[in-house]
Chromosome partitioning protein ParA
Amino acid sequence: MNNKGGAGKTSTITNLAMSFAQAGRRVLLIDGDQQANSTEVLANGKKYHAQYGHTICDLYTNPRFSISDAIIPAVSGDEAVGNLFIIPSDPSFERVMENCLTRHHREKILFRHLQPVMDRFSYIFIDCSPGLNLSTTNAAYTSDHVLIPVDGGSFSLTGLEVVLDYLDEIRETRFTRFSVFRNEYNGAKKKMNAYLHEQLANNARTRDHYLNTRIRADENISQAQVACVPLWYYNRGALVLNDYRALMRELETLFSAGEA
Ligand SMILES: Nc1ncnc2c1ncn2[C@@H]1O[C@H](COP(=O)(O)OP(=O)(O)OP(=O)(O)O)[C@@H](O)[C@H]1O
Ligand SMILES: [Mg+2]
């Protein structure tokens, strides 16, 4: 999550999910964003996925929908990506969410659908849209842990604050199960890096949640997205893949220490 658009939510979660899958974890990635960017990358460019099969829209329109029907293997081209499954999104999800706005318990829609399949996956990731819409609310209600990317500008700090306040509101407590990390890190931008580090490391709210792993700036990320394939399939020599693996290891250490 980050309330700022373009902070790196989709790039991080698609590549992190790949890292976990390659490490032998069974992973489900739910595309909770009507922009359907994760779907584009992990479903061979099929952004308008409602044309091809079930999507997250079905979860939000039909309380009796069987979630298993919307879970499909992630692919690179025609090749299935082992251990990685997705629930695709579709641009029509925006309208679907609007139609849910008068439903009772609408913040629990995803949580309720997920119950029967929770045990089938080691990890379930949700890619959020930039806005605090109903899908983000459901992610905030459901998640054990929230990952917040901060890119190279100061606006994502504002987006981070907004998300933290929102999490507190939805969870009705001071929500502490989150991690903040730097994305699109460029070591040459010394002043900006020092500023962001100071903000994240000294802020009482974030200092204990600030990850060591930084995801470097790497052109391969956007190139793979243009090609609509996961980065590992696009260029398995891309250095940033090491960062996603490091992020995976840091998170697994956190989780095994009891920080869900
Ligand atoms: N580490 C990185 N290095 C280089 N480019 C990056 C990096 N992370 C993200 N980008 C690029 O920045 C742009 C925004 O990234 P991304 O789509 O992941 O952000 P987002 O937070 O999901 O955006 P939105 O809020 O629209 O969902 C994309 O073009 C992506 O390729
Ligand atoms: Mg995105």
